[in-house]
Specification:
19 helices, mainly alpha, 518 residues
Length: 518
């Protein structure tokens, strides 16, 4: 089948090494500008810090109790296994095309430049919303650690800005300081999370195992289960961050897929352990189900260790939120850089700029400013709720686009996943099908308007946040695509056409370099 010829004689389909790649023969098709200094562990750290067991459990535990009672914990392994099918597709794609830009690069190779741009556009919007959300939610922990009080909306936004500026400073130092910080952060986070969870589980347990099968006192039914499943999905986002640092990973074909799968698995197991320990040690279960206890995790820690544990526990959570913000900013900067060097974004000349420390500082500064603007929505609680809801729902829509594109390319012969280092054979096709079915369900489930997952009295825009924001972004994106035509700016040698409808084996011949890839 015809291959795409990249610049400098690059063959992006086979990965033939022509001087723009890595020690393992990976050829990105682009001039190497970023510093390759990340080992498997460091790439894993990026994914682990982004998914984050602490941030993940805080995303799910309170609403999990409200929607499904103590039995919500069983949704964690279910969602984890299903998300691992998604991660397996991402791992296969990353093993063949380990390029900054990730989903944007993969979709445009398999479905054409326009589809790639649109996927990248939605991905950037979701990731910026996610970065603003993490900074916003981390703000109270910073304020509480310093003052011991709860912040006003303005103080919370200001603390969020401090988060983002700190993350920017760390990212500007280069890859080596970045990986040292993330390594230290995830070790502290994992040790503290596992240590506290084991202590709660073995020494401060207030319930036997039967509580794990107890539903909400009010009776959740199917609606409660579906809502809890949506909430569980919030805890397992961000594993794709590993793919965004592919061009900084020393052996990306081998290590990036491993990092994707291992980071999601590791975080999932820690989240499950924490959920079990909190559920079995929390004294006031009724308070958690009613929402009177807004933070069941902290309540469990105070019940077990006393009020003196609040400040050190706050410090641990703060470290986790900072590491998560740094990691999101890291991969978001690379995602912007990956699109900008193809001239796919406004101000691409600035956004693709790489500094002397070999980091895309133009992209990093830009995403930080945009995330700070997103933080301003925190001055209005309803607006902040809309931002947070879309941050999770948008990722599931992107996941669906990527896996569906990959499945179509597999079935039509446009993509042979076994050309990469991660060879899964027929099992890969089965996992891809399961991933698409799961994501069709979960994307609708997460987007479904539920007043029960919004603050009491929240306006309709918060309840309908995912659908409303996605619809608005779709209209904006299509108008920009039609008017600005960013897909036409890309160099001819790096361009990809939409899939050809001619069935394989009919004698169709390529007419240009914008042809199918394998």
């Amino acid at each position: 089948m015809p291959h795409h010829a990249g610049p400098q004689g690059t063959n992006t389909a086979t990965g033939a090494h022509t001087g723009t790649g890595t020690d393992d023969g990976t050829d990105t098709g682009y001039q190497q500008e970023l510093h390759r200094g990340l080992s498997l562990w460091s790439t894993f750290s990026v994914g682990f810090a982004t998914v984050s067991p602490v941030v993940g459990i805080y995303a799910a535990v309170s609403l999990g109790y409200i929607t499904a009672g103590p039995s919500w914990v069983w949704l964690i392994p279910l969602v984890l296994v299903l998300q691992l099918t998604v991660a397996s597709v991402y791992a296969s794609l990353a093993s063949q095309w380990p390029i900054a830009g990730g989903c944007y690069q993969w979709v445009r190779r398999l479905a054409g430049d326009r589809a790639g741009w649109f996927t990248g556009f939605l991905y950037l919007a979701s990731a910026i919303a996610s970065l603003s959300t993490v900074a916003y939610l981390g703000g109270p922990w910073l304020f509480s650690l310093v003052t011991g009080d709860a912040p006003t909306p303005g103080q919370q936004v200001l603390c969020g800005v401090v988060f983002l500026v700190l993350a920017l400073l760390i990212n500007q130092l280069g890859v080596n300081p970045l990986k040292w910080f993330l390594n230290a952060g995830i070790v502290a986070e994992a040790v503290a999370s596992i240590g506290i969870s084991l202590a709660l589980l073995f020494f401060f347990r207030n319930h036997d195992f039967s509580i794990l099968f107890q539903g909400p006192a009010s009776g959740g039914g199917t609606a409660g289960f579906m809502a809890a499943l949506a909430v569980g999905g919030w805890a397992f986002l961000g594993f794709d961050a590993c793919s965004q640092v592919s061009e900084e990973t020393v052996n990306p074909r081998r290590d990036v897929p491993r990092a994707i799968l291992r980071s999601l698995t590791a975080v999932g197991l820690v989240v499950l352990l924490t959920a079990l320990s909190v559920t079995m040690s929390l004294k006031d279960v009724a308070g958690a189900e009613s929402g009177e206890i807004a933070d069941p995790v902290l309540a469990s820690v105070v019940d077990a260790f006393g009020s003196w544990a609040v400040r050190p526990f706050t410090a641990v959570v703060l470290i986790a939120f900072i590491a998560c913000a740094v990691s999101i900013q890291t991969y978001l900067g690379r995602a912007v850089f990956g699109m900008a060097r193809d001239e796919m974004l406004p101000a691409s000349r600035l956004l693709k700029k790489v500094g002397r420390r070999q980091v895309p500082h133009g992209a990093l500064w830009t995403v930080t400013v945009l995330a700070c603007l997103g933080l301003l929505l925190g001055l209005n609680g309803d607006a902040a709720g809309t931002l947070m809801a879309f941050g999770s729902g948008g990722f599931y829509i992107v996941f669906l686009i990527v896996t569906a594109t990959a499945l179509r390319a597999r079935l039509t012969g446009r993509w042979d996943p076994d050309k990469g280092d991660m060879k899964m054979g027929r099992k890969g096709l089965v996992l891809n099908i399961v991933a698409v079915v799961w994501l069709v369900f979960e994307a609708i489930n997460v987007a479904w308007p539920r007043a029960s997952l919004a603050a009491p009295g929240a306006p309709w825009i918060v309840v309908w946040a995912v659908i409303a924001v996605f619809s608005a972004l779709t209209v904006i994106g299509l108008i920009y695509l039609f008017v600005a035509k960013p897909h036409l700016r890309i160099a001819a040698s790096q361009s990809f056409a939409e899939p050809d409808s001619t069935p394989a084996g009919t004698g169709h011949q390529p007419t240009s370099s914008r042809e199918t890839v394998r």
